[in-house]
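Repro case for the chain-ordering regression, as requested:
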Amino acid sequence: AQSVTQLGSHVSVSEGALVLLRCNYSSSVPPYLFWYVQYPNQGLQLLLKYTSAATLVKGINGFEAEFKKSETSFHLTKPSAHMSDAAEYFCAVRINTGTASKLTFGTGTRLQVTL
Amino acid sequence: DGGITQSPKYLFRKEGQNVTLSCEQNLNHDAMYWYRQDPGQGLRLIYYSQIVNDFQKGDIAEGYSVSREKKESFPLTVTSAQKNPTAFYLCASSQHDRGGYTFGSGTRLTVV
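-- result from build under test --
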């Protein structure tokens, strides 16, 4: 069965520092992978997605992620953190089973950005 | 603009009462989903529907019910059988392709 594991429920970085949020996946078939961001009391917003095209995927707000099959990873990065990046981030894998297609989410990583 | 509308944003329920959360989308998406979010547990799938008049149970369907009478609407009823209903509920929709989901802004349900 497909699943994702997010390493680290909380990550704290200084403003201007590199952001690295880790996600590893488990899938028996080529996966579709996603990163979402959630601000307090709001829904989830799609940051970026990997759908078997380029392995380096660029998303909104300066984020990007690299699909590494050999490491079964899809880590999210941003070169320079901004205070507005403070939020919860979810990695997800899409399961396609015939006509059914569902996203399975990781447990989330809360990003704190300090001055 | 197209999107998903969830209402109400905040909902209070007395123990023993049923309550219905609304979810409407104008994206012409075929599939719709309900997730429950609790702190530290991520999102857990309650029900999903791939087509009108059809829906399937997710991982935590007990104590919940849904209907899909129209393509645009997928209401969720939290019944009195749900023992711990206080949570943040998220509705989403998607097409049958490689894309992700579009989410509503959520409903926070509190049992008082």
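Ordering looks correct now. Chain A has a mean pLDDT of 91.
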